[in-house]
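Fold this sequence, please.
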Amino acid sequence: MKLIVKLIAGILLGIIIGAFAPEAVARVLYTLKTLIGELIGFTIPLIILFYICSGIAGLPRGANHLLGKTVGFAYGSTVIAGTWQPW
């Protein structure tokens, strides 16, 4: 129940700050939100990649090809997702 109260308080605080804060404060907060979002979006594929690599490292001998394919696929999908522009 505490989490719901915190969420509601955060939403109300955001509405109040957004309504009464100067535009410069809103721009700074939006910039921080965007930067943190980009950072999270960049690190999630790396976390997945390392999780997969650690799992493959625990496989028996001869799994090198599987590891190479997985790393190539994860890196390639990250690059494509970062450069693809919707029309």
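DSSP finds three helices and no strands in the chain. Residues 23-57 form the longest helix (35 residues).
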